[in-house]
Amino acid sequence: SKEKYQGNDFAGVVTGLAWTAVGGEILYVETSLSKGKGALTLTGNLGDVMKESAMLAHEYLKSHAEQLELKPEVFNNWNVHIHVPEGAIPKDGPSAGVTMVTSLASAFTQRKVKKNLAMTGEITLRGKVLPVGGIKEKILAAKRAGITEIILSEDNKKNLEEIKNIYLKGLKFHFVKTIMDVLDIALLKTKVEKPVLVN
Amino acid sequence: SKEKYQGNDFAGVVTGLAWTAVGGEILYVETSLSKGKGALTLTGNLGDVMKESAMLAHEYLKSHAEQLELKPEVFNNWNVHIHVPEGAIPKDGPSAGVTMVTSLASAFTQRKVKKNLAMTGEITLRGKVLPVGGIKEKILAAKRAGITEIILSEDNKKNLEEIKNIYLKGLKFHFVKTIMDVLDIALLKTKVEKPVLVN
Amino acid sequence: SKEKYQGNDFAGVVTGLAWTAVGGEILYVETSLSKGKGALTLTGNLGDVMKESAMLAHEYLKSHAEQLELKPEVFNNWNVHIHVPEGAIPKDGPSAGVTMVTSLASAFTQRKVKKNLAMTGEITLRGKVLPVGGIKEKILAAKRAGITEIILSEDNKKNLEEIKNIYLKGLKFHFVKTIMDVLDIALLKTKVEKPVLVN
Amino acid sequence: SKEKYQGNDFAGVVTGLAWTAVGGEILYVETSLSKGKGALTLTGNLGDVMKESAMLAHEYLKSHAEQLELKPEVFNNWNVHIHVPEGAIPKDGPSAGVTMVTSLASAFTQRKVKKNLAMTGEITLRGKVLPVGGIKEKILAAKRAGITEIILSEDNKKNLEEIKNIYLKGLKFHFVKTIMDVLDIALLKTKVEKPVLVN
Amino acid sequence: SKEKYQGNDFAGVVTGLAWTAVGGEILYVETSLSKGKGALTLTGNLGDVMKESAMLAHEYLKSHAEQLELKPEVFNNWNVHIHVPEGAIPKDGPSAGVTMVTSLASAFTQRKVKKNLAMTGEITLRGKVLPVGGIKEKILAAKRAGITEIILSEDNKKNLEEIKNIYLKGLKFHFVKTIMDVLDIALLKTKVEKPVLVN
Amino acid sequence: SKEKYQGNDFAGVVTGLAWTAVGGEILYVETSLSKGKGALTLTGNLGDVMKESAMLAHEYLKSHAEQLELKPEVFNNWNVHIHVPEGAIPKDGPSAGVTMVTSLASAFTQRKVKKNLAMTGEITLRGKVLPVGGIKEKILAAKRAGITEIILSEDNKKNLEEIKNIYLKGLKFHFVKTIMDVLDIALLKTKVEKPVLVN
Ligand SMILES: [Ca+2]
Ligand SMILES: [Ca+2]
Ligand SMILES: [Ca+2]
Ligand SMILES: [Ca+2]
Ligand SMILES: [Ca+2]
Ligand SMILES: [Ca+2]
Ligand SMILES: [Ca+2]
Ligand SMILES: [Ca+2]
Ligand SMILES: [Ca+2]
Ligand SMILES: [Ca+2]
Ligand SMILES: [Ca+2]
Ligand SMILES: [Ca+2]
């Protein structure tokens, strides 16, 4: 079912863009934290490559805790559960990397995610954002869902040329090189209401 | 075999609605707690997606303990075993999500589940209730089994239009957006007889 | 090979009824306890559904220890090994549930099992006994083996109507609703000779 | 390759009888102990049913330690490694049960195994010895290898009738009902040279 | 997509050479360390043989810590995560061995990797560098990407003879026998900016 | 690629003989030790039977530590990594048993392995050396590689008769019955240069 963007009230909920045989679609990545020893649980019918994206996101934040003003210990003191609805649909591929790392960063900092923003891009362990496929379909889906800003890898800039201007109207694009670029754009300074104390 | 609704004497036993090739059916989700370290055991010939629903339900309650007036520690001090009879029948899909989270919440609070109530709906980690398929068949099955109230996702409301009024007669519907909506409707304030002391 | 009933000298050895393509047969469920941390080991070429029956039986007794006058700690202090001979024959399905829970209960209480008794029925986590298939073949097999009393789910009562009276002669049936019904019938008050001290 | 019986110098080495498409053969079960926490390691290209035989043998001895004048703690203080040469040949089935339990008992007691003795039979958790197939082929193989005494399940006695007397000449048979019968026959009172101190 | 060499700013990022059906390509091996107990995590859609290369690299450095002026304890105090982008492409084979051991050594020492350098070669546990296939295609890819120095096994020297001189122009080759030869060439004495304190 | 024998400078590196569809070949077994709790890691694309050989070798040495003048504790204080290059080639079968046990013994004792020596043979847990296949091809390969002494199972002696004398010229054979025979021949009294202190 085609979904509408649903706001930014929750820490750890980030809008991604997926691409299937039947077109683009928005999807949500949800992160929930619970006291523990740093375990990572992944649900939502995820394939191995998508699970690796979550592992990369977790590891990247662990080794860049200070840049997000997080104590490194939080990653050992909290279990992370990442879920991608809808459970009946198998999902795979590396393109949710940026969405996952933003979801995790929002959950750990309890900072709000920018409104009406969606994103797609592979991440690497050193923090690069790599280009992904299906850009045209993803943009159309984002627009349909009410998204107004989109984060893409700089190396996906060229893919916009093949899209008619009319489809791009009303959309603001952010082209990024690194995970830190993504987080700078996506995470607001303000925290969500009733933030959980993560430390 | 077509079953009848069997009352609400047990904490942790909740009536769900399933949909198979041969029609709708009610099914029970049963939760049993035992002292432990928070392990989750799942039986009843469950597929991976259905197992993920149970993980989501467990995680959701863990991070929303206070809303149910539960100490967060209980989730680390009790092992959870969820069973869905009948063992010979393979079961899968996300639609038992609401039934599982209600079963778990009833087991941990020892609150009774509302009588003659059945439910179906996918849950997500942030607490949304998503629509599911087979609504018509599930409603017919619920009625046959003696159910009088049904909880559905608000996004399944539209599916009722395609069902003749005669089949809906005598049924009360609750359309919900969130897990908390489900628990508000499904869990009574009264506890079961001889409640287990969960803390 | 067609077996004969072999007496009730051992705690934890209970006679079940199985049903295969070539007819009914009696089988034994054997439980052995050893000091440990509550691990459950299952042997006898068992399929996943039959293994789940053993998990259900173990969990049920754990959360109903007091009704059997057992200290709840015993389930954490003793490892359980359940075996179903014969090792070369694959076995599956939920119908050994009642046999397994009786075997475990006898092992933990060291109470003798009623003589010349066999049983078949699925169990659920809340303690219900569900009906199973192959009743006619199982009854014939029980008689051949020298069994004189049989425990069945109340919902299997109707299956006796299709069996000629001559086959039922000399057999006493117990129709049960719950696991506690089964244990009340199957476990004698007397303990086996030289009982193990389980605590 | 057809092997010859190789003496009884080693604790934990017992001669079994196997049966394959190309005839009977003797095989050795070897047990080695090393200080540890009671782990059980199985090698020799063994199938699941044969592995279960080893688990049954280990468990049986654990819960009958006193009858062998062993302290129950030894099973938690020593790791057990059971190997069945030759590694290139897959082996399966329950018929090595008696051989495995004798091998383990010899290793833990350091008692010598009776000379020129071979055996075959399934074991159960309560200590029964069940009949197995291929008796004729196994007996021929034993004789060829220089074996003079054979342990069989009492229920395999009838299989000797179909074997010509000339093949049975020079062989002494022991028909047993229980594991304890096997150990009484197979384990000598004398220990091996330079026994390991197992406690 | 054909990539360009991307500099040597990061500790633990090393340029390797891969060879697929569609030609040679450069790839990056990235290593990230985080406080832990020495666990090794591998991502990037890696096959079993490539995972074994990472295990060999880790083990080799562990047992040759002193030669790199590392305390042996660091391998037990830090978890290692090795990633090979791009996640959508399955990768396998032993030829990334030298790249992995250099990546790990750079991460643990925080020493910079030589600029414009790429490498390919299998490693063994005793520290040998074995020859690999696809040398011609790999060299062409390296040149295209802006690489100017290449490390190969001495046993791959002969493969250069079959390549036209024009393709080799502007490339400097290092033929090595051992892992230590590789590290001597690839690791600079200078550390990266803001090195992590690994001890 | 056809390899040449490469000397005996390293503790834990032993030359074995393998046999494939395309003829015989020498291969190396390499063992590396690192401080730990006795874990056994196996790499080199090894099949299950070859992995079992390594487990047998490890277990055998553990229970015969004193004969090698090793403290039994060393096996619990050191992790063992065994690798068989080349990683791209799948390897299986029991015939590397003698090579593995010699590699392990050399690593733990730091004693040099006899020069120009190769070996092939299956081992058992009680220390026997069993015959293996492909003797002719293995001998030819050994000679080609510069090997001058070969260890074989006594039961492989007969296989030499079918080989023309010209191929055996310049080769010295050692026919062994036990693992201890192998180690007596293969391990020199002198230690490698800069031996690791294993205790
Ligand atoms: Ca959707
Ligand atoms: Ca995305
Ligand atoms: Ca995406
Ligand atoms: Ca039903
Ligand atoms: Ca449901
Ligand atoms: Ca039978
Ligand atoms: Ca039964
Ligand atoms: Ca043989
Ligand atoms: Ca046998
Ligand atoms: Ca690429
Ligand atoms: Ca080779
Ligand atoms: Ca070999």
Task: Report the C-alpha radius of gyration of chain A, rounded.
Answer: 16 Å
Q: Looking at CATH, which topology of chain A would you report?
A: Ribosomal Protein S5, domain 2
Largest interface: A-B, 23 and 24 residues
Major sheet attributes of chain A? 7 strands, mixed
Average pLDDT for all residues of chain A: 95
| H/E element sequence of chain A | EEEHHEHEEEEHEHEHE
Q: What is the percent of helical residues of chain A?
A: 25-40%
Give the name of the CATH architecture of chain A: 2-Layer Sandwich
Task: Tell me the strand order in the biggest sheet of chain A.
Answer: 3-4-2-1-6-9-10
The number of strands of chain A is: 11
Domain module count of chain A: 1
Q: Cα distance, first to last residue of chain A?
A: 38 Å
Strand percent estimate of chain A: 25-35%
Q: Which molecules are bound besides the chains?
A: calcium ion
> What's the quaternary structure here?
homohexamer
Given this structure, which CATH class of chain A is correct? Alpha Beta
Contiguous runs where pLDDT drops below 50 for at least 5 residues of chain A: none
Given helix and strand content, the structural type of chain A is alpha/beta
Discrete helix count of chain A: 6
How would you sum up this structure, described in words?
6 copies of one chain form a homohexamer. Chain A is an alpha/beta fold and 199 residues long. The first copy, chain A, has a single domain, classed as Ribosomal Protein S5, domain 2 (2-Layer Sandwich), CATH 3.30.230.10. Chain A is built from 6 helices and 11 strands. The first copy, chain A, has helices at 48-62, 74-77, 97-109, 135-144, 165-168, 179-186; strands at 13-20, 23-35, 40-43, 78-83, 111-113, 117-119, 122-123, 129-130, 149-153, 172-176, 187-191. In chain A, the strands form 3 sheets. The first copy, chain A, has a 7-stranded mixed beta sheet. Chain A has a two-stranded antiparallel sheet with strand order 5-11. In chain A, strands 7-8 form a two-stranded antiparallel sheet. In chain A, helix 3 (97-109) crosses helix 6 (179-186). Chain A is globular and about 50 Å long. The mean pLDDT of chain A is 95. Chains in contact: A-B, A-E, B-C, C-D, D-F, E-F. The A-B interface holds A 1, 10, 12-13, 28, 30-35, 41, 43-45, 81-83, 85-88, 196 and B 48-49, 52-53, 55-56, 59-60, 62-63, 72, 75-76, 93-94, 97, 122, 124-126, 128, 130-131, 155. The structure holds calcium ion (12 copies).
